[in-house]
From TrEMBL:
Occurrences of domain Phosphatidylinositol-specific phospholipase C X (ranges): 54-224
Entry's Gene Ontology BP terms: lipid metabolic process
CDD domains noted in UniProt: PI-PLCc_BcPLC_like
Top-rank lineage group of the source organism: Eukaryota
Signal peptide residue numbers: 1-19
The protein's name: Phosphatidylinositol-specific phospholipase C X domain-containing protein
Keyword Zinc among record annotations: no
Family annotation (SMART domains): PLCXc (SM00148)
UniProt organism field: Talaromyces rugulosus
Listed InterPro entries: PI-PLC_domain, PLC-like_Pdiesterase_TIM-brl, PLipase_C_PInositol-sp_X_dom
Keywords associated with the record: Signal
Molecular function as annotated in GO: phosphoric diester hydrolase activity
Length: 381
């Protein structure tokens, strides 16, 4: 059922379509573009940074930059207004757009800029037919669904076969008055992740991050979801690493999550997204609390458990605060005396320089492109 698709203008994506299959791919990538961005084959200094590492490098030993709530990059008042019809069908009211926006650049810009871990949150559209992307009540696009955005990743990996994409997928609740992570949602997700194309482009290993060489040209699936409404064979058939929402302690600065019980493989996770500051704390204080939690986990990655997985989320908000601390002010400040030292991102620069040469693990940023040298500093380029 394609009734929800808007008439996205056709835009040439690949150089020139020369066959029926390339016309079809252009249509798919055009639908994906509100989330994936305009496909273009581009290579800059950061686009293929993984080429610098040998095949036998263990992924848990690498520094891998990522983005939190990656699909929110074009969520403005105009987007919110454009989604009003669907939002009405979902029977939700949506807080201001600043609440939800965590990025400024499209997924393809992220990948071309060196980002290798993405965080996407899906749920059904109001007709329960298509998995689309939300940040809580905020619908991010009608046309771009999980399947067509996956084709963007497949094409990008074809163009950059030295690289990998770590894809975190999470079921997003609160998207609709009657939302439910039911068997239909879980089956739609399962189908998207086990299609013939997905089988070719998702790394088919399970419960372990292996070497860079084994993963080149592939997506590694991070399953921040359960298929608990389906028989267990469905879960068994999925590749990737499982981070059950039941084990992922909410708003915790220090999660130890065993993602492989047989081998006792533990992930050390910081996901303290909403600092529990005393009432009346200003942005400077909220930023300080979040920064402290962030660097504590990154420092642990640099000093301890060299063969364990570290996954740090530098992203945060405190939108219940007065005035609200949107994701943007937490990440990059607002260039006033109100945030004299900037946000978490600016403060991370000297810290990352101090840890030059150390293993930092996977770190997910908000507004990753600010300040401009954040990712270069992280990657030590
Ligand atoms: C961003 O959102 C606006 C408002 O909905 C829309 O007009 C514009 O086309 C979007 N940009 C992209 C690249 O999809
Ligand atoms: C979609 O699923 C939800 C949750 O199960 C249900 O409440 C709603 O009625 C369904 N909507 C349609 C149009 O079938
Ligand atoms: C599992 O690993 C953790 C940390 O790596 C360790 O503290 C714990 O004792 C181990 N448990 C078992 C049963 O080996
Ligand atoms: C953050 O850490 C610094 C250095 O350890 C400490 O002085 C400061 O009190 C901490 N601030 C908060 C808000 O936890
Ligand atoms: C910066 O943030 C503070 C606190 O929310 C706000 O009062 C101030 O108006 C903001 N300034 C700018 C220029 O955005
Ligand atoms: C924020 O709070 C801290 C601690 O109370 C205070 O030192 C600082 O002056 C406050 N900043 C602003 C802009 O009010």
């Amino acid at each position: 059922m394609k009734a929800l698709h808007t008439g996205i203008a056709f835009l040439p994506i690949l150089a020139k379509a020369t066959s029926l299959s390339s016309y079809a791919l252009q249509n798919v990538l055009s639908d994906a573009s509100p989330i994936f961005g305009q496909y273009s084959k581009e290579t800059n200094a950061n686009t293929e940074w993984m080429k610098r590492y040998p095949d036998d490098t263990l992924l848990v030993h690498m520094n891998i930059p990522g983005t939190h709530d990656s699909a929110t990059w074009n969520y403005s008042q105009a987007t919110q207004d454009a989604m009003a019809g669907i939002t009405a069908l979902n029977q939700v009211t949506v807080p201001p757009p600043e609440t939800f926006r965590c990025q400024d650049r499209s997924l393809i810009d992220m990948l071309n800029s060196g980002i290798r871990a993405l965080d996407l949150r899906y749920a059904f559209d109001p007709t329960n037919t298509s998995l689309i992307f939300y940040h809580s009540q905020a619908l991010l696009s009608e046309a771009a669904n999980l399947e067509n955005v996956l084709f963007g990743f497949y094409q990008w990996l074809e163009d950059h076969p030295s690289e990998i994409i770590i894809l975190s997928l999470q079921y997003e609740g609160s998207t609709a008055k009657y939302y439910a992570n039911d068997a239909e949602v879980q089956l739609a997700l399962f189908d998207a992740l086990t299609s013939p194309a997905a089988h070719d482009y998702f790394l088919q290993t399970k419960d372990e991050l292996g070497t860079l060489g084994d993963a080149r040209g592939k997506i590694i699936l991070m399953r921040r979801f359960d298929l608990d409404q389906l028989p267990s064979q469905y879960t068994e058939a999925l590749p990737g690493l499982h981070f059950s929402p039941n084990l992922w302690t909410d708003n915790s600065p220090d999660i130890e999550l065993v993602y492989n019980t047989k081998k006792n493989l533990t992930a050390y996770i910081e996901d303290y997204y909403e600092p529990q500051t005393p009432t009346g704390s200003n942005a400077t204080e909220n930023i300080q609390w979040k920064y402290n939690a962030t660097i504590a986990n990154i420092r642990k990655a640099a000093l301890h458990y060299p063969d364990s997985l570290f996954w740090t989320w530098a992203s945060s908000e405190n939108t219940g605060n007065v005035p609200p601390d949107w994701p943007r002010i937490m990440a990059v400040g607002n260039s006033t005396d109100y945030t004299p030292e900037g946000g978490v991102n600016q403060q991370l620069i000297p810290f990352l320089k101090e840890l030059k040469g150390k293993r930092l693990g996977i770190v997910m940023f908000d507004f990753f492109n600010q300040p401009a040298h954040l990712i270069d500093t992280f990657l030590d380029l």
